[in-house]
Every structure is written in C-alpha cells, then in structure tokens.
Design a protein that fits this description.
Blueprint (H helix, E strand, L loop, with lengths): L7 H6 L1 H8 L1 H7 L1 H11 L6 E5 L5 H10 L4 E6 L2 H8 L10 E5 L12 E7 L8 H11 E12 L6 H10 L22 H10 L3 E16 L5 H14 L12 H15 L3 E2 L2 E14 L1
Helix pairs in contact: 2-6, 8-11, 10-11
Length: 288
C-alpha cells in the first residue's frame, strides 16, 4: 500500500514508475483484451480531439491517434516522467493524429475549456487525490456534447488475476494494511452506483457502467511447461500488479518467498503454455 506521506506524483515518478516503464511491452500485452474493450466502447470518430488521462507509456494514446486520423489530435497526460519518456519514444504512424505528451495532473491542469470531443482513460482515473475535482476538471475540458469513456476495476473479488496471487502472498505479510476503499487505489470505483453519483456531481450525465470480463494472459512458456508459464506470470503479478503494493519496502527474502508462493499458486492455472486468469472491469461512459 502507498504510504500516506507519499503523493501520487512521487509514487509514479519513483521506483514504481521506472519499473512500469521498463515493462511497457509486457503490460501492453497483458492488458490488450481490456484495451480492445475500451476502444470498442469509446468508438472514437475520425477527426476527434481526444484527451487521454493517465496515458502511461502511451499505448492508448497511440491507438486513439490511429482512430482520430490526420484530422484529429491527441493530448496525452500523465504524472509519471519515466512512463512519458517511454511514450515519447514510440513513433506515431503516418496518417495518424499528432500526439502531444504532457506531464500533468488531470486533477488540476488547465486543459482549456471546451477543448476536446472525447476523454478516455485505461485505469488512469482511480488515483486522484480529489476525484470530484479531477472529474469536474475533465468535464470542463470537454466540448458541449463531448464524452468521457474509461475503464476501472470492479471489486477485487471479480478479479482472480489479483485474488489468486494475493491469497498466496498474504500469509507472508500478516501486518499488511487492508486497502483503503475511499483512497487512491485500483479498486476505488468498484461500486458503480457510487461512481455514477460522483460523475453526476462533477457535471456529467447519462452515466453508464457496463461490466467487462476478460481473461488476461499473465505469462507464457516457450517450452509449453506449466511451471515455466507460472514463473513468467508470477514475475508480472508480483512486480507490476496490485499485489506488488503488499511487498513494497519488504526485505528481499520476503519478496523471493512471495515470488515462489505465487508461482506455486499459478501452476494450476497454466494451460497450453500460458497462465490465464479472469479480470473484471467497468466500462464507464458519460456525456459532458
């Protein structure tokens, strides 16, 4: 769990952001089915001006640029300089919309009034210090009739890709604090009714929360062996998933024991050389 004294900017510009930046290709591959669901729901039209909130290492902004085409534009914002450094190094294809990358907090940054047709986010909206202020700021940036579309996680219980490794790790960290349901974190918007009220209070209407369920491939084995696939998957969920927060600041022996425990827990989920576990999200849409 992120320590209370650490801001989100400090968190994502520190070791965590650097680790995620190094793992950009892995994360893009793991989340590909959910990214597809986001853009299917957003249905971005050619020529659109698009704001990508929490763009990370750039995958979603580049897909948005492809959808918008040469007549559109994309502004991609994130708190994390390490992730933006990776994003800026990724090429925009000829014929795609230009992408501007900015290090900014969507809660407070002046994006301009009535500047965008659509705002999107893939798991970038759950970490605001003040969610109401952030969504109101995004609302101000949308043109009349503009739309917001984002993915956020449903309840932890709906996400075996988290609960299976978490159950393996918890006995090793019995002093771990439970997640704060009201603070910044992956499962902050698990309650769709509360989320809808929040968005409406921030100025949105026609809020819809559609459940999305996909299997994520967490690790593969070139040799097809279940254990090899489980080892690859354990490296992903221990190093990059919500479980990694349980192990932050733990001594190396604890981290190694956690990696071994998660590997054992994932072996039964390996089939045909890959570990697949379910992920549950809300595909949220709202009118500005």
């Amino acid at each position: 769990m992120v320590q209370a004294a650490m801001t989100q900017a400090e968190y994502w510009n520190g070791e965590v952001g650097q680790r995620w930046a190094r793992s950009q290709a892995v994360l893009d591959a793991v989340f590909a089915p959910l990214t597809e669901a986001l853009f299917s729901g957003a249905a971005l039209p050619p020529g659109a001006a698009i704001l990508d909130v929490g763009c990370g290492a750039g995958a979603t902004a580049l897909i948005a640029a492809r959808a918008a085409g040469a007549g559109g534009r994309v502004l991609a914002a994130d708190l994390s300089a390490p992730l933006l450094s990776v994003a800026r190094g990724r090429p925009v294809r000829a014929g795609d919309a230009p992408v501007a990358w900015i290090e900014a907090d969507a809660e407070t940054h002046a994006f301009g009034a009535d500047a965008f047709d659509h705002a999107i986010s893939r798991f970038g909206v759950m970490f605001f210090s003040d969610s109401h202020a952030a969504f109101a700021n995004i609302r101000r940036a949308l043109k009349p009739g503009g739309r917001l579309t984002f993915l956020c996680w449903r309840a932890m219980a709906d996400n075996p890709w988290v609960t299976v490794p978490r159950a393996a790790v918890l006995p090793l960290v019995p002093d771990a604090s439970p997640p704060d349901p009201d603070g910044p974190g992956p499962f902050r918007f698990a309650d769709p009714e509360g989320l809808a009220r929040l968005l409406e209070a921030a100025g949105f209407d026609a809020v819809a929360c559609e459940p999305v369920a996909r299997d994520l491939v967490l690790g593969r084995a070139q040799d097809g062996a279940a254990r090899t696939a489980a080892e690859a998957a354990a490296a992903v969920v221990v190093g990059l998933g919500p479980v990694s927060r349980l192990l932050r600041d733990r001594e190396p022996p604890v981290r190694q024991a956690a990696l071994e425990a998660v590997t054992e827990a994932l072996v039964p989920h390996a089939r045909d050389g890959a570990v697949r576990l379910g992920a549950g999200c809300w595909l949220v849409s709202a009118a500005g």
